[in-house]
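Handout, section B. The chain below has 459 residues.
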Amino acid sequence: MHYPWWYVPFLTSPMLIAAIATIHIFVAMYAVGGGMFLAVEAQYAHRTQNRLYLAYLHDHGWFFILLTVVFGAITGVGIWWTIGLASPLATEALIHIFVFAWAMEYVFFVVEIASAFLFFYFWDRLPPKTHVIFGYIYAVSAWISLVLITSITAFMLNSGNWTEAPSFWVGFFNPEFIPQTIARTGGSILLASLYVYLHAALRKQTEPEVRTLIARRSARPALLGAVLVTIGGIWWFLALPASAQAALAAAPSLNILMLLILAVTGIIFAMLFLGPYRNPGWVTPGFAILLFVFGLAAIGIGEFLREAIRKPYIIYSVVMSNQIYADEIPQLRKTGYLEGGTWTSAYVAEHFPQAIDAQGTIDETALLALSPEERVEVGELLFLYHCNDCHSVEGYAAVSESTRGWSREMILAVVKEPHRARFFMPPFAGTAEEAELLTDYLVTIARPFPAGLVNGSSD
């Protein structure tokens, strides 16, 4: 209501955010775990004076910087661009609540970039001790960035006591902070090993003894990462708010994904144990690719689950999934949803001046007196602002399909109390008159009852 809507046809804007964010997570977690790997292994190679291994690490450093600094920066900007358009109110709230955390994150991000370039471009021109120090500066800075960002994303899922005691530290140390930090730290360590296996296996210049050394030295960290992901994931589930746990239980597809992520994690652990840990020679291109794909699948499913159960809120107990502050709903129900928004009230005033009273506010009764075509137009406006953040007309989460075969009375009943029909939907934040207008529009896009089925009508 505080910003104009952004319509993404077929896909919906949240799914676009999810697609870009997941790609970024694949790279961002490698930026953390890969930094740890390079720092530790560079220290080992310098200490053992293994020039062959140092040469490989330098070569891997180029791959690391190209992927994390260049591609990671592009997808990071893409996330800010999409959330700013798709979820502007949530973005504004998170910036205001966590302004100190964002400031710290930007500082550590600058340290990351500087130390990464010093570590890589001065590889052979720094004393070994200084070179390793720069590697550890990067690794620590990257991990602190992960901690800061994780706190903010965890707050979105469970804000804890923040609504009763709104302070930075209450929001920062929310119930999901520690489990998600454990899971993402483990995921970063695990994913880094999988990236290294893939790079070493596909790079023809990698000496067999170097590939074996990589497998032996990264197997234990990778197994540790898988264990941390499992511990963090279980704790994450236990720390979920009641509505999120209920949403998870109510969606068969999400239950399947929960079982799938457990199965994939188990497969990864078994492959790591039987492969790099027990048989380092197994790190062949085919094995590395398969292991890498399983790793991306586990991380991707985990991110999808985290986003899918954050309903009916974008920020739990603070911002609803349709860009309304939770505490605004009672007032909007009294004065009108259209009147409560800068953009919606301006649209009505420009296109339907006959619905504006002497005080310059929207007359809800006058809206019902509009022509049928005009009522549908106002209903579409309500849909775009109230429903568009989660639903499309055609495509993913299409309202035209979910209302297929419904009567007007059925649609109106759900419009008035959507949270009763689906508890993970936000309440309708408009008047009874606006519910009628939204229903007028939804009736025009609802698909007919499927042919060949008994629909109980008298036709």
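Note. The chain has a mean pLDDT of 92. Compare this with the example in section A.
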